[in-house]
Amino acid sequence: MHGNQQRPHRAISRFVLAMMTTAVVVGLEGLPEVGSFGLPLVVYYALFTLIFFLPVGLVSAELGVGWPHDGGVYRWIREAMGPRWAFLGIWCQWMQILIWYPTVLAVCAVSLAYAIDPQLRDVGWFVLLISLGVFWGATIINFKGIHASGVLTTIFLYAGTLLPVGLAIVLAVWWLGDGRTSAIELSWSAMVPRIDSIGEVVGVCAIFSFLSGLEVNAVHFRHVRDPQRSIPIALLISGALVLIISVLGALSVAVLVPVHDIDLAAGTLQVFAVVLDPMGLRWLVPVLAVLALAGMVGHIMVWVIGPTESLRVAADDGLIPPSFQRTTAGGAPRNVMLLQAVIVSVICLLMLLVDLNRVFYFLTIASAQIYLIMYVLMFLSVIILRYRRPDVVRAFVIPGGRPGLWLVAGGGALACVAGILLMFWPPSTEDMAMDAIWFTVPLVLTFVVLVSAPLVLYVFRDPSWQGKPGMPGASDTDTIWKRSD
Questions:
Q1: Which 3 state secondary structure label does DSSP give 446?
Q2: Which residues are CB-neighbours of 390 under 8 A, at least 6 positions away?
Q3: What is the structure's pLDDT at 306?
Q4: In whole angstroms, what is the distance from residue 58 CA to residue 239 CA?
Q5: Are 275 and 285 in contact (CB under 8 A)?
Q6: Which of 47-61, 287-301, 317-331, 362-376 has the lowest mean pLDDT?
Q7: pLDDT band with cut points at 50, 70 and 90 for residue 480
Q8: What per-residue confidence (pLDDT) applies to 140?
């Protein structure tokens, strides 16, 4: 199927890995929702960086240099806890991507609407068609593999994310410097969060979703030049970029767009419309909208085939039915990707039936909860492996010895569990309030079904699935299609 000829890999540079990782985490889709928190978002981001984002980066670095093999998170969890929990981990990673896709696809559609006619952003069939077109296009392209995707991701990140967000920040600074009125109060006292109810806390927990993904590119760690130095440095660079872009970008939305007017799928573009229209530069909005669309497409391209490397290792363990082990000529898991596209298409139909802001919020929370399950398993794995496999050479370890390990990984796991439980409570923030019957009940059902499904599949797996021809094995990955290197 893929022959026996060795194909040399192009090593991934430290810079490209940092840009790829930044592109995985950063997206325009999260800025409006975080911007709706107002000035306290600075405090929120500082807190979530300490209890979640920093631990994820440190744990990913230790596990990535200790086990820089194909499989990424699946390999790490399997080494520590066995294939059952490893399967649950990558299942949750895949499921959160499926649930998350419609939110970023909505941003793609709204971006194109701003480039053509802003009124189209409220036209359901337009949003649906563009969302499906972008996702199916990305799926078909990835059937062949994108060997230059690391470079393309960097270009898309600059043109479609850094440039628009950078301009939004500059416009917000100019707006305030010109003596114009801010949509939020700007004072030290205004930075202090006002937590009037548990519903307020729940709304803030959406930040978990917008700071997730540092570990995704771990499947490429083995192809990085000088991994002992490059991996920690790349994670540090990408982490700093993520925080700078996210905080300042969200603040630009908060300063220029009143909270009640923020559209969760169009907030960044609303900034441009608010500022550029009075300046007679309306013509720039469609240009920036096209750039934002490119950024979102690049964001999707990084994710659309994300679990592939893990699925290869899972296929070796016989955890995937043979029909889903079939690949394209380029080595991409064809049937898995087709199933993914169908599921995403069905979820996108919700945009025609329900208020888009509410769908956006529900899917954000559901995807965050599912993803946090994987993070709990990852945090536990680094602790277990430090005790069980002290013989494995780690060029980077979480500082502070075992107390530091427990503080970072144990604290991160507890933060994730607390986040999962809190997010079941219906939100009651200034811009988003939902009843328990329409929020908590569907969310609980969604969570139970998605988390129990892989455990049931594992129990009823067929031993004959193992070793079936179709998806290349982990030992074959040097001779086949490889993404992003």
A1: helix
A2: none
A3: 61
A4: 11
A5: no
A6: 317-331
A7: very low
A8: 80
Question: Mean pLDDT lowest for which of 13-22, 148-157, 353-362, 421-430?
Answer: 148-157
pLDDT at 52 exceeding the cut of 80: yes
Return the closest-CA partner of residue 96 out of 446, 442, 484.
446
d(CA 67, CA 392): 8
Residue 148 clears pLDDT 50, i.e. is over it? no
- Inform me whether the pLDDT recorded for 203 exceeds 80: no
In three-state form (DSSP H/G/I as H, E/B as E, the rest C), the secondary structure along the chain is CCCCCCCCCCCECHHHHHHHHHHHHCCHHHHHHHHCCCCCHHHHHHHHHHHHHHHHHHHHHHHHHHCCCCCCHHHHHHHHHCHHHHHHHHHHHHHHHHHHHHHHHHHHHHHHHHHHCHHHHHCHHHHHHHHHHHHHHHHHHHHHCCCCHHHHHHHHHHHHHHHHHHHHHHHHHHHHHCCCCCCCCCCCHHHCCCCCCHHHHHHHCCHHHHCCCCCHHHHHHHHECCHHHHHHHHHHHHHHHHHHHHHHHHHHHHHHCCHHHCCCCCHHHHHHHHHHCCCCCCCHHHHHHHHHHHHHHHHHHHHCCCCHHHHHHHHHCCCCCHHHCCCCCCCCCHHHHHHHHHHHHHHHCHHHHCCHHHHHHHHHHHHHHHHHHHHHHHHHHHHHHHHHCCCCCCCCCCCCHHHHHHHHHHHHHHHHHHHHHHCCCCCECCCCECCHHHHHHHHHHHHHHHHHHHHHHHHCCCHHHCCCCCCCCHHHCCCCCCCCC
Phi, psi of 468 (to 5 degrees): -70, 145
Domain ranges for the chain: 14-464
What is the distance between the terminal CA atoms of the chain, rounded to a whole angstrom?
21
Question: Band of the pLDDT at 472, cuts 50, 70, 90?
Answer: very low
Q: What is the rounded CA–CA span in Å between residue 158 and residue 291?
A: 9
Tell me the CA distances in angstroms from 315 to 45, 250, 453, one per residue in order.
38, 41, 17
User: Under CATH, which number does the domain 14-464 receive?
Assistant: 1.20.1740.10
Coil/strand/helix, residue 85: helix
Using the predicted structure, report yes or no on whether residue 10 has a pLDDT greater than 60. Answer: no
The two three-digit tokens of residue 311, written as one number: 């699925």
